[in-house]
């Protein structure tokens, strides 16, 4: 039997939580690279909360994955065959290669990475989408000053854990919001946040106020919904809110109510700014350099939640992101 | 009978719409200026939507007016007696003098104005809080580029009408949102906006989309609530939303639901920024210079809704702002 490609395609637009039936997973012939292209044998696939948004129809920062189209995904692997001058067989590469075993790339957005410096998972994990997102969202939009308080939601997550650690490196106080005592423990003990508040414990407002005696200067938002509403009145004058994700709304089929406390944005002269990492594409190297430097100094810790199971486990693994089933950056080995 | 001061004091915190009973209005002795102070005989008082917020308890950009305290208000008048080196008897001045007939000032935030250039009402009207607010909110936060589309809510109001006119001066397309056909007529015919949509006509989303065929780049927000929710999905990538006021919420005793369409802020990478003119205090002269220049060139039109009635008419005149009873900048003659 000849080796085949294995491809995850979008079968229909999900309603609510992603289900297995939203995808088809099937064997297909291994594709051949054309002029100026190369083929990657994918070793691991990055699972990111943004994926749920990519599956929806309608205007977004990137076109939706088409019905029948290969599911969009960051992935890492090895170049097998190349007709591209900058990518050679044996190169380890990352890029938006899709949820499949073999991908063709023209090199756009693809990077050759050094697996002597960090394992391949880290290049689509800590140093990949999550690290880059945390870096630009916090440094460029949050702009924390020494001694300020940075709060981040989904703090045990891939982006959140990086945000707090980078905040500490910048001399700020880092406070996380996470769901459940185990996640909170990871946030303070492993990632070194100054405090972490469990939103599931039922008194987020009071506990967050106690954990932030000088108020909140930067709120890095991954979640939205009630958590945002609770944070808004605690913001200090001229606070900044990088709006990175709205996990709470991704799987909702009806729009969720927005923040009642919008007045806080006016009264406290807050800046709420949405962003996506693609906007910073010309500065990826800056982020990678800083992240690798801090990691080399032992100042950044990563937790990769690497799942086995191969391509066929893609839907169930993806679902973990929206049910709180993972701790740290979720990666699927192919 | 000796001449007395007449003073509006806050009797209690209003619930919902402002009522007469929220104030006490009484005669008091005329105050005498101390060292470094001067006394103003007030000629007219500026009525501004922000006043409703100043009456509420709780954290805001300025401390709340205390119960029993003189109602905070911008006003204009003439210096009568002065122990201040920079203010001389006969000077026409504006400042945060309060809702009363005679005020003492130490000169902070007070400006001597030239009534040969514009009548006193204009210095607390078009050139005062509304003009300054429109100027900094649009120029600094909205940053409209030539050919972009600027939408402003409460477009027939004092701030809104200036925003659209300044947008046109900057080479942008100006679209207003106002309540009722008469206000919309004023917005397009008198203030020269390119279009104005009547939110009371029941199809704001559809009509606004039709009036903004290239989408919305800057939304100058005075209202909040459902109008903001309707505008959000029409915003273009990297759009800016200066958050100037939330009139719809000022008189609400319960928090109103926030925007369901917050996801648009993320997806379109919008910047929502709250501001108040006090933040730009060191640049008031820049705004006054620009506004006076444009007015001198005939490029800015003002509509002052100057009410007679004196100090005792303060509560009922203020109420007009929240019931849509005025067109243009509301000023009360003392």
Automatic annotation (TrEMBL), chains A, B:
SUPFAM superfamilies: GroES-like, NAD(P)-binding Rossmann-fold domains. Keywords: Oxidoreductase. InterPro entries: ADH-like_C (IPR013149), ADH_N_2 (IPR041694), ER (IPR020843), GroES-like_sf (IPR011032), MDR_fam (IPR045010), NAD(P)-bd_dom_sf (IPR036291). It comes from the Bacteria. One of its GO terms (molecular function) is oxidoreductase activity, acting on the CH-CH group of donors, NAD or NADP as acceptor. The keyword Oxidoreductase applies. This is NADP-dependent oxidoreductase.
């Amino acid at each position: 039997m000849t080796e085949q490609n294995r491809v995850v395609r979008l079968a229909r637009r999900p309603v609510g939580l992603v289900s297995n039936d939203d995808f088809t997973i099937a064997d297909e012939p291994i594709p051949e690279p054309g002029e100026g292209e190369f083929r990657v044998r994918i070793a691991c696939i990055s699972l990111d909360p943004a994926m749920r948004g990519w599956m929806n129809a309608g205007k977004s920062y990137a076109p939706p994955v088409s019905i029948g189209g290969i599911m969009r995904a960051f992935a890492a692997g090895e170049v097998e065959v190349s007709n591209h001058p900058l990518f050679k067989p044996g190169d380890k590469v990352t890029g938006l290669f899709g949820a499949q075993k073999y991908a063709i790339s023209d090199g756009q957005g693809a990077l050759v990475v050094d697996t002597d410096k960090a394992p391949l998972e880290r290049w689509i994990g800590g140093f990949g989408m999550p690290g880059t997102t945390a870096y630009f969202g916090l440094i460029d939009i949050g702009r924390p000053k020494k001694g300020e308080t940075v709060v981040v939601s989904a703090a045990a997550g891939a982006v959140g854990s990086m945000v707090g650690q980078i905040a500490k490196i910048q001399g700020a106080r880092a406070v996380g919001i996470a769901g459940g005592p185990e996640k909170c423990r990871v946030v303070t003990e492993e990632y070194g946040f100054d405090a972490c508040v469990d939103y599931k414990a039922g008194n987020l407002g009071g506990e967050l106020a106690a954990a932030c005696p000088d108020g909140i200067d930067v709120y890095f938002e991954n979640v939205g919904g009630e958590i945002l509403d609770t944070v808004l009145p605690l913001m200090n004058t001229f606070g900044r809110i990088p709006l990175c994700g709205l996990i709470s709304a991704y799987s909702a089929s009806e729009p969720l109510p927005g923040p009642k406390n919008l007045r806080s944005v006016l009264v406290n002269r807050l800046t709420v700014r949405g962003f996506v990492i693609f906007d910073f594409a010309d500065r990826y190297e800056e982020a990678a350099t800083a992240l690798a430097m801090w990691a080399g100094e032992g100042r950044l810790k990563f937790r990769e939640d690497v799942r086995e199971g191969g391509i066929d486990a893609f839907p169930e693994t993806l679902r973990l992101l929206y049910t709180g089933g993972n701790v740290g950056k979720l990666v699927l080995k192919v």
